[in-house]
Backbone:
């Protein structure tokens, strides 16, 4: 199988490396087809494409869009997009817009439990002021000694029901899929195993996504267990989705999975990249 890694982050969102540094990691991990998919942001695309080309890796432009669907956050990856598409560029700008106010509200929630100045603390980890995320708070809170690790800090402070969590309304699913289609790309449901919908909602997510023109789901991702590889391979077969593969790499020390190191897609599934290879 082609070693494709079609989901990862640079410091244009909540990764820590520059796009060129991520390209180097991908290359060293044996990746032959790569996509940088920053959250709600295309600022790293040009540098990623250039670095990939210089290393002899095939590149497709990518993005990971934050969506709210049925009261939960869902991530939709867009692959092989035109990064200059106005509908996509404008839609992402709108999606990013609420992040600063949300971050200030998160800091207020943390202040209530005795953690002062978390906004300023998180900002020290932000390199793109347009894209302050929970991950930046998490890095600060770990460094400041409030929790031993990123998963622990999310569990204690940054997830629903905890002091630094602020509900947020992201892009509608319909819009995210339509921006990706307008940009000539393929819409992919990211890490479906991470959403805790109950079965009828889950079926509705997949059928709605398909009706809107969504084509693929991630089957092999750094966010799935081996059991979930099987489960979502079944979902791909059932709904006729193409399958994607990506590490969701954010930082050398944080990521469970190195770029390019995940198992291959099950052989009977259609890889999402058959659409453009
Ligand atoms: P945001 O878009 O600001 O809500 O941040 C979402 C990001 O937080 C995700 O893309 C992950 O990188 C990170 N994240 C979410 N949950 C966890 C977790 N339990 N452990 C580590 N990172 C997480
Ligand atoms: Mn992230
Ligand atoms: Mn995600
Ligand atoms: Mn991601």
Residues:
């Amino acid at each position: 199988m082609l070693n494709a890694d079609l989901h990862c982050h640079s410091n244009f969102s909540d990764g820590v490396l520059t796009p060129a540094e991520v390209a180097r990691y991908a290359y060293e991990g044996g990746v032959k087809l790569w996509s940088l998919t920053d959250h709600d942001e295309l600022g790293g695309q040009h540098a990623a494409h250039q670095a990939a080309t210089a290393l002899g890796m095939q590149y497709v432009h990518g993005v990971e869009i934050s969506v709210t669907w049925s009261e939960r956050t869902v991530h939709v990856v867009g692959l092989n997009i035109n990064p200059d598409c106005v509908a996509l560029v404008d839609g992402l700008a709108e999606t990013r817009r609420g992040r600063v106010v949300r971050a200030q509200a998160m800091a207020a929630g943390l202040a209530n439990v005795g953690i002062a100045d978390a906004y300023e603390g998180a900002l020290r980890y932000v390199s793109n002021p347009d894209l302050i995320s929970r991950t930046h708070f998490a890095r600060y809170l770990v460094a400041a000694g409030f929790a031993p690790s990123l998963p622990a800090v999310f569990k204690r402070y940054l997830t629903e029901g905890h002091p630094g969590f602020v509900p947020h309304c992201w892009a509608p699913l319909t819009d995210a899929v339509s921006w990706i289609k307008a940009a000539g790309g393929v819409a992919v449901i990211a890490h479906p195993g991470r959403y805790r919908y109950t079965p009828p909602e889950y079926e509705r997510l997949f059928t709605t996504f398909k009706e809107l023109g969504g084509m693929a789901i991630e089957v092999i991702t750094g966010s799935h267990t081996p059991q979930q590889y099987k489960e979502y391979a079944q979902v791909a077969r059932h709904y006729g989705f193409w399958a994607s593969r990506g590490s969701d790499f954010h930082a050398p020390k944080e990521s469970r999975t190195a770029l390019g190191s995940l198992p291959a897609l099950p052989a009977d599934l259609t890889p999402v990249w058959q659409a453009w290879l």
